[in-house]
Amino acid sequence: ATHAAIEIPGLGKITVPIGLFINNEWVLPTKGQTFTVVDPSTALPIVDVAHAMAEDVDRAVHAARAAFETTWGNNVSGAHRGNLLNKLADLMDRDVATIAALESLDAGKGISVATSGDVPESANCLRYYAGMADKVHGQTIDQFGGKKLAYTLNQPIGVCGQIIPWNYPLMMWAWKVAPALAAGCTVVMKPSELTPLSALYMCDLIKEAGFPAGVVNTVPGLGSTAGEAISRHLDIDKVAFTGSVATGRRISVAAAESNLKKVTLELGGKSPALVFPSADLDQAANWLGLGIFYNSGQDCCASSRVYVHDSVYDKFVSLLKLKAETCKVGLPSDENTSFGPLISAGQRDKVLSYIDSAREEGATITAGGKRWAQAEGFFVEPTVLTDVNQNMKVVREEIFGPVVAVGKFSTEEEGVHLANDTPYGLAGAVFSSDASQVTRVAAKINAGTIWINNYCALSNGVPFGGFKQSGIGRELGTAGIEAYTQIKGVHHNL
Ligand code: NAD
Question: Which ligand 1 atom minimizes the distance to the CA of 193?
Fold first, then answer.
C-alpha cells in the first residue's frame, strides 16, 4: 500500500503516505519490501513503510534528471521557484497540527516543542530560501577596454541526493530541500529509516504547492540500501548528508569511487563550553541545561563537555544538577513534556553503556544515570557526570544523549586547550562577563559555531557547519545556497 491509517494521539485516526514518492506520484517499491517505524515512547510499531532499493533510487534519479532538464533548473525563474517555496511554507502553517503530531509520534519530541519549534522553524527556513531564489547572482569581472567581457554565472549543480538523520527529521529536511530548490537543483531525498513520516507527508504538500513532477522525489529506506545507492549513483551530481562521522566517511568514499560527486557533510560533535568566574552562573546553567537536555541530548551541537573554573565549580554543578532534576520528562503527547524518549532501544542502550563506562572509569554520577522507569519507551534520565578527565570515553566520544561531563580548569589557556582537545569542531560556548575575554576565547575555540553567554541559538541567516571532523561545507545563510550552485566563468570577445 502507499497509504495507511494510523492512530495519532490527539488527532485520532488519519491516513498518511507510506510509499515512495517519484515524479509526484505515490508508487510501490519494485521488490515490495518494507521496514517498520516504531514509536520511541512506547516501543510499539506505528506502521510499515516502503523500503527503496537501488532500482527505486534509480527511478527517482531519472525523474529528478528529467525535471532538472525541462521544468526546473535554468528553465524557470528564481522568482517562480521562490513563490513555490513560499506556498509550501504556507501549507505547512495550515497543516501544523498534523505535521507536529507526526513528528512528535515518530521522533518522540514533546508535542508543544514540535508545534512551536520544529514545524514553524522549518517553514521559516523555506521562506528564507524562497527570498534568496531570485538573488543568486554572478559577477561581471572586466570589460578589458571594450574588447572583451568576462562574467560568471552561478548555476544549479543538478540532481542532488540528500540523506538526513532522525534527530530533527523535518528541520533537516528543510535545511536540505529549501536551498537546493531555491538554487534550481532537483532532489532525491532519503529520510532516516527511524523517522520517515514527516518527509513523506511533505510530499503531498509539494504536489499541492505546484512543484513540477520530479523536482522532489522521496525514497525512504535503510542506509545500506537506499543510502548507498544514492551515494554511488552515477547520475547524481551532489550528495548532502547529515549524520554520524562514520557514515559521512562512507558516503565520501562512495562519492569519490563512483562519479566524484560533490559532497557536503554535517557530522557529529563533542561541543565544549567554558564557564569563567565572572559568568552569570544561573544563566550559564540555564543555557547549558538547554544545550545538553534539549531534544533529549540528541543534538549534534549538544553541550556535552562543560569546563568550569575551579573557583565556581561546586556552585555551577549544583545549579546544573537542578536543571537535570527539573527537566519535564514525559510522554511526547503531553503538552508539558520538554524531554522525551531517545529514538531507539539501540540508542538508549548505547547511552546507558556510556554512563556505565563513566562509572567504571571513576566519574561521579551527580544526577540521573538510569533508565526513566515511568514508561515502556526508550527513556534515559537527564544525567550529569562530575570528577571526569580527558581520557574518559564520555569526554572523548560523542554520546548523542542527555549526558554532560563537567570538568574543571584554572586558567584561560588551560580552558581553551581542553575545549580544543577533540577531533570534533561543530560548536562551542563561552560564559563570562568580560567582553575582551569572550571575544578572545570565541576566536580561539576551533568550531564552526560559537555561542557567547547563550546556547542553541541558530538562525537561517548564519552559516552552520563543522571544523575538523565535524564536517565539510556549510548550511544556512548565503553559504547554504551557494553549496547548491557551481560557478561558470564566461569569456566573451566583443
Ligand atoms: P547515521 O549516520 O547512522 O544516519 C544518518 C542517515 O544516514 C540515515 O538516513 C541513514 O539511513 C543514512 N545512512 C546510514 N548508513 C549509510 C550509508 N552507508 N550510506 C548512505 N547513507 C547511510 O546517523 P544517525 O544515527 O541517524 O544520527 C546521529 C548522528 O548524526 C550523530 O552522530 C550526530 O552527531 C549526527 N548529526 C549531525 C548533525 C549536524 O548537523 N552536524 C545533525 C544531526 C545529527
Answer: 11
* Predicted local distance difference test score (pLDDT) of residue 38: 98
**Residue 365 grid cell:** 554520577
Grouping H, G, I as helix, E, B as strand and the rest as coil, residue 123 is: helix
Question: Is a pLDDT exceeding 90 seen at residue 125?
Answer: yes
276-291 pLDDT tens trace? 999 999 999 999 999 9
Q: What is the pLDDT of residue 438?
A: 98
How many Å apart are CA 405 and CA 359, to the nearest integer? 12
Of 103, 228, 266, 412, the catalytic one is 266
Euclidean distance between CA atoms 121 and 89, whole angstroms: 10
Q: In angstroms, what is the span from residue 233 Cα to ligand 1's centroid?
A: 19
pTM over 0.90: yes
Distance from residue 27's CA to the centre of ligand 1 (Å): 26
258 Cβ inside 6 Å of ligand 1:
no
* Ligand 1 pocket residue status of 233, Cβ below 6 Å: no
Sheet with 25-27: strands ordered across: 25-27, 20-22, 216-218, 186-190, 159-163, 238-242, 262-266, 471-472
Respond yes or no: is residue 412 known to be catalytic.
no
> Which three cell numbers mark 144?
578589458
Report H helices in 95-139: 96-107, 111-113, 119-132
Q: Quick: pLDDT tens for 295-311.
A: 999 999 999 999 999 99
**Would you say the CB of residue 231 lies under 6 angstroms from ligand 1?**
yes
Residue 220 has pLDDT above 90, yes or no: yes
At how many degrees (to 10) do helices 435-444 and 412-420 cross? 30
